[in-house]
Hints:
- The protein is α/β, with parallel strands linked by helices.
- Helix content is 19%, strand content 29%.
- The radius of gyration is 19 Å and the shape is globular.
Amino acid sequence: MKKVFLLLLDILTFPLALLYNASISGKCSLLADKIYTFIVRRSFGKAPKSTLLRRPLYITGARHIELGENVIIAKHVRMDAVTYYEKSAQSFEPRITIGNNVAINMQCHIGCINRIQIGNYVTIAARTLIMDHTHGTSTAEDLKLPPRHRKLHSRGPVVIGDYATLGEGCAIMPGVTIGHNAVIGANAVVTKDIPPYCVAAGNPAKVIKCFSDNNN
């Protein structure tokens, strides 16, 4: 029933976008997103009324995802809290927690079998990947199998500190902690912890600059 209602919502708002100017079209789109949010947020483990979800989203295991106040998630974001992986018959207890005033932009992918914790006031640019697991390990036994048939393996949780900024197209790998107020450059691949108040860039990402909390 929910899927039918969401489809009708898209059908009704599409002609409005064609018939009216950009300002009115934007207001109609926002209204549709608020209706979409009202329906979808109830499936999350926690999602306050201040949440704004831009349609469409692709969510798996929403009951294992908790959102803080004033979280905005842009359209085409994929979030997977994986409780069971059929190919290797594995069960998990994932937990994704997103703090207050977090903005997640378009086409990001967050995948979790362990724990992903995103702090307050974090900005995540478009096409960012955050994963706490991989398909298998580098052992000879695993490499004999096709990637999708290998067991899912987590090297530890991902923790992103308050006020961190993740640049467009970056990838945050399993077991990584990103410090308070850290900045990750566009297209960076973060495989190791990044200290607070530091800028990291490159593949693999390296710290290229640090600054203090008093701007000195």
